[in-house]
Amino acid sequence: MALDQLLSRLKMDHLQASLDSLCEHASKQDLNYREFLEQALAQEWGGRHQKGLESRLKQARLPWIKTLEQFDFSFQPSIDHKIVRDLAGLGFVERGENVVLLGPPGVGKTHLAVALAVKAAEAGHRVLFMTLDRLVSTLVRARQENRLDRQLQQLSYPKVLVLDEMGYLPMTREEASLFFRLINRRYERASTIVTSNKSFMDWGEIFGDQVIATAILDRLLHHSTTLNIKGESYRLKDKRRAGLVTTPTTKEEDTSHDAGSEPMKEH
């Protein structure tokens, strides 16, 4: 059987596409059989990994691709670099723990959440990004169409679920109840990353019911890491440098103060 046929039947498409260049390289470098085989298999694995990563990132529905290397930590000195490095190791994903990012608008919460999601996708984990508004709309529609259990099950599959913009819009009691069911379904099974501009004390207002808010926090914060980011908006820094903005708005200051500035680890 010809080599091309063997590679085709073994579904080694990436190796097949680059075989000629690999053989030429092996000849020039005078590689032995073992070294050539190692490079050939590495080429196939690398191609498969890249294809899988691209597929996972597409399914994740991230608003954009951001990495931790692109994050300007010097602009947000309140962030503990050690905690972020620990999170980047993805131990929290393996343990099914959660991450909560608190702070006023524009301080980089979504950037950090997306960067951790990208890390998880690179490690082979299934990831999904949703704004809270979109999540709630999805759950409400599923309930109206009598397929809520199936929808909750689908949202339980991603190893990392990023829920962005918690607190920008209040929920009805029914919506809060649906959100609780999702958090309860994922509890200690998969990781959820939440970004919010509200402190935990204000979550009763978000969910419209203090009892439900307490139940959600109980499950979300058990085995979790909370990062409170106290700083000004990235979106304002260029204007501030140009002298167009002189001081943070009162709303940002109040929100930052409520959220606090110290990182917190829950067990």
Q: Which residue ranges are poorly predicted, with pLDDT under 50 across at least 5 consecutive positions?
A: 247-263
Main sheet makeup: 6 strands, mixed
Mean pLDDT: 88
What distance lies between the first and last C-alpha atoms, to the nearest angstrom? 58 Å
How many beta-strand runs? 6
| Spatial sequence of strands, sheet with the most strands | 2-3-4-1-5-6
Q: Count of helices?
A: 13
Helix/strand class: alpha/beta
| Rg, nearest Å | 23 Å
Q: Which term fits the overall shape?
A: globular
CATH class category of one domain: Alpha Beta
In the CATH hierarchy, the architecture of one domain is 3-Layer(aba) Sandwich
The CATH superfamily of one domain bears the name P-loop containing nucleotide triphosphate hydrolases
Helix content: 55-70%
What is the N-to-C succession of helices and strands?
HHHHHEHEHHEHEHHEHHE
Estimate what percentage of residues fall within beta strands: 5-15%
- And the CATH topology of one domain? Rossmann fold
